[in-house]
Amino acid sequence: MHIWVDADACPKVIKEILFRAAERTGVAMTLVANQPLATPRLKNIRSLRVASGFDVADNEIVKRLTVGDLVITADIPLAALVIAKGGYGLNPRGELYTTENVRARLNMRDFMDILRASGVETGGPASFSQNDRQLFANQLDRFLSQHFRKSDR
C-alpha cells in the first residue's frame, strides 16, 4: 500500500498528520505537486514535482496508483478515478470516498458548476476547522489499522 497526496491544495495541518502517520507506521507516501515541497527526511516519504498545468498532478497520481493505494484529495473527479482504478480516496476533511458517495459528489459538483455559470453566487467551502482535522486524523487511523499491516512494510 502507498499513500498518494494531491499536495498542491492539501492543508499544511493535514500534511503534518500524514507525516506523523507515515513515521509511526512506515507506510510509503508520496506528495505530488507542481511546486517544491518540504518533507521530513524519512526513507518512506518523498515528494514528486510535476509540471504546472490543469490536472497534471492528478494524472500522475492516477498513472502511478495501484489497487489498494490511498489518495488524499479534495478533488472529486480525481477521487472518482481513484475509486474506479481500485484505490481508496480520503478527503482532507475526513470523508472516505466510496463508489456511491463519489458519484453523488460529482453530480453535486456539476450542478454547482451549472449554477455558477448562470450567475448564481454559490459561495465556497466552509473554513477548515479543528473538527475537520480531528475527523481526518481519526479516519486515517481507522483506514491504516484496517488496510496496512506491519508485514506490508
Q: Would you give an account of this structure?
A:
The chain has 153 residues and is of the alpha/beta class. The chain is 45% helix and 16% strand. The protein has five helices and six strands. The chain has a six-stranded mixed β-sheet with strand order 3-2-1-4-5-6, with helices on both faces. α1 (12-25) links the parallel β1 and β2 (28-33). α1 packs parallel to α5. The chain is globular, with a radius of gyration of 16 Å.
Blueprint (SSEs and pairs):
Elements (H helix, E strand, L loop, with lengths): L1 E5 L5 H14 L2 E6 L11 E5 L6 H9 L5 E3 L3 H9 L3 E3 L5 E2 L1 H19 L12 H18 L6
Parallel strand pairs: 1-2, 1-4, 2-3, 4-5
Antiparallel strand pairs: 5-6
Helix pairs in contact: 1-5, 3-4
Characteristic key phrases:
153 residues, alpha/beta, 5 helices, 6 strands, 45% helix
Spell out the helices and strands N to C: EHEEHEHEEHH
Strand share of the residues? 15-25%
Give the C-alpha Rg.
16 Å
What's the average pLDDT? 91
End-to-end span in angstroms? 9 Å
Weakly predicted, low-confidence segments:
none
The largest beta-sheet arranges its strands as 3-2-1-4-5-6
Structural class: alpha/beta
Percentage of residues assigned to helices = 40-55%
Give the structure's gist in a few sentences.
The chain is of the alpha/beta class. Helices cover 45% and strands 16% of the residues.
